[in-house]
Amino acid sequence: MAKVVHKFGGSSLSSAERYQAVAQIVLSHCRAGDCVVVSAAGKTTNTLVKLWQSYQQDDIQGFSDILLQLENHQAELIKALFQAQPQRQLLSQLDTELQVITLHAKQKTLHEAALLAHGELWSARILGCYLTQLGFAARHVDARRLFTLHQGQLLHQQNKRSCAEQLSERVLYVVTGFIASDVANNTVTLGRNGSDYSATLLANYIDASAVSIWTDTQGVFSTDPRKVASAIKYPKICRAQAHLLARLGNPVLHAKTLSPLKHTNIKLQVRSSFDVEATPTEIVKEGYSKAKRFITTFDDLDLIRVDALAQGEVSELSHLIQHSIHQFTTKGEAFLLIPAQSTHRVLKVLSGRANIVESALQGFAIVASSADIAQLQTLAAQLLNEQNVVVRFNHQDKEYALFLTDQAIDSDVLAILHDQLVSKDRELAVVIAGLGNVGEVFVQQCQHQVARLQQQFDVKVVALVRSKKMLFSANGIALNTWQQQWENESNTYSNEELIERIGELDYEHKVVIDITASEAFSDLYPQLINQDCHLISANKYAGTAQSAWYQQLCEQLFERNLYWRYNTSVGAGLPINFALADLQHSGDRITHIDGVFSGTLSWLCSSFDGSQTFSSLVLEAQKMGYTEPDPREDLSGRDMQRKLLILARDIGLTLDLADIELEPLMPQELAQGSWDEFLTRREELDVFYEQQYQSALAQEKVLRYTGSLHVLESGKVKAKVGIAFVDKSSAIANLTPGDNIFVIKSVWYELNPLVLQGPGAGKEVTAAGIHSDLYWLVQMLK
Ligand SMILES: NC(=O)c1ccc[n+]([C@@H]2O[C@H](COP(=O)([O-])OP(=O)(O)OC[C@H]3O[C@@H](n4cnc5c(N)ncnc54)[C@H](O)[C@@H]3O)[C@@H](O)[C@H]2O)c1
Ligand SMILES: N[C@@H](CCO)C(=O)O
């Protein structure tokens, strides 16, 4: 079973209550085999650093005071969490360790990293024992036995083996963060945010499926939420943007934390241990999240120009000063942004190769998609000018723009920048399934139509799905070059992958447009609804599924506040569903629906004059894109039966297909077998049709295929689709080939019915009808 690594930072473990809260999280979120990585409790590392400094300064009194402070804090935690024997044992272990520290200090043999390691060792031990006390099989582990470095480089193969050997039992392992050892068994630390790094490293070594970083913030925000109340918490951001933010010094994630995940599928999330119910931020792989906008601020930085930088030099410097250093090149010159208090150390290392360009700078960087960055930079410059903020240095890169200023960017200015620059547009991700006759035309029309919708809503087509392959791009597919993108980037997929990828989309709204003729695809609707997708269907299968399934689908949509539009499933682009809905909204009661609801059958019956065989006309209708993929769905009357059922359900009737009588327009025997077999027997269809045609003529009538639904006084329903011989002068006899006609009677339209007539099939009108559904969905979401 896939393992998960959970990491709890110091703030999550700052008191006995916090340990108890963390233990509850572990009990509800972890299983045997998972790992929990812990930092030192509260400010323990800072106190240990002070202890080290007093040792170095030979401050004996200071040393013993700080040691006592540490002892009191740890003893307080132990006494609050344990009793009797476990308490005595933990206190005695603590006492022994403090005595060893005192002894080493006296002997002048203390080591900095080994001293700092105590913070994590104590938290792992306390949490491990506390979980055991609660009955959870847990064991604390010293990460120095798992992670070994040689000359500053982690020995990945060896570490992977150590993890496999030492973390093989079905218990929960509570592992120390931050620390490792070198090949001579000396303690080394993994640097700033080292525990996060330990967690992702461990996840890589044990092939975990996910890492959760539990912290005191709720996730990753568009800007500092303590300064800007309207900061947006993003449920998903992609790794590249998280990495860029980290390089720019944003404190939520460190660049190093992300590196062990680089070529893996391990999921990473940042979530609050103080608010377990809050939605976390997931850091997802490229393509699984669209680019977000951020403003990250800087304080007290120096800008230095460097002659030449060796490979890896910036990360070494960054390690030295325990802070991210942002590096960039502009006009052929290399620059570094250094926290002012560390500039001296950096310049010393770069000895003579660097000089300060600007000092004591404040400022911010806007991070956004490359398509937006130039426009955002111009807008930011204007806003700063309006706010009288002087820009001392400014740099635009592919995915960010940097503004270094004299004054601090206070909360008011930051709020203005955030309001103007960080998009809060409402967004809709569109997934289009089925690129056949109608689907291809729909995508063509999308170019123009999506551009129109963009004026009201941020609409992006993010996936094109055929039966075997799909093209998925969370940032949006370029509609003018989609065929090319399809050639280069489409992939085979399974339904599970499709649902998972749709679930990963971090858009405010999502819609799946089903232009397939596939029952199997409509079977996915409940899963799509579970992923919060609205639905638009040209496909009739879900609308005509068994009542129980259909009802449940409608309830599921209702519960999740989702919309389902299916304008084109009856009458192609004709607004029949609108007409029925409008009548009912105005208090009317519909009693009769009669007419011709099949474009194919309308065209066939109106076009047939005996000059060519009926089956050759069927093939022509197929070519024109009127028929279902298998035209027998039309000839059997099944397609029209489906349409009548959809209309019946629209007027509030609980019917199933079996409740609608059906008379086929072809011999029953031709329904079996493949389409090719049908073609070899097409003469049987011709003979059948000719006979019906002649019978109608003999009665001085014409042959049509019609449907009718009557709601009787008693409330009983009579519904039928089948062959009809109609008067030559009737409206149905004189339909333009391919047209549908709906004759609606209601309480208010009783003697003079409401009639709706027009093309009932065809690629263009149907595709346009689906666009109408998309338009109305956007209006409903606005
Ligand atoms: N043709 C019309 O005039 C018209 C009018 C109204 C409604 N419709 C409905 O629109 C739908 C499409 O009609 P069409 O004429 O374009 O049919 P089509 O057969 O030309 O196209 C359907 C496409 O869906 C694809 N497909 C099948 N299963 C799939 C799956 N599981 N996932 C993704 N794609 C899949 C097929 O490969 C095919 O390319 C049908 O449900 C039809 O009833 C058509
Ligand atoms: N085959 C269908 C397409 C529209 O649903 C028809 O001819 O009416």
TrEMBL record:
GO molecular function, one term: ATP binding
SUPFAM superfamilies the record matches: Carbamate kinase-like, Glyceraldehyde-3-phosphate dehydrogenase-like, C-terminal domain, NAD(P)-binding Rossmann-fold domains
EC number: 2.7.2.4, 1.1.1.3
GO biological process, one term: methionine biosynthetic process
Keyword NADP: yes
Annotated ranges, domain Homoserine dehydrogenase catalytic: 576-774
Self-association and partners: Homotetramer.
Protein name (Swiss-Prot/TrEMBL): Bifunctional aspartokinase/homoserine dehydrogenase
Species assigned in the record: Pseudoalteromonas holothuriae
Underlying gene: metL
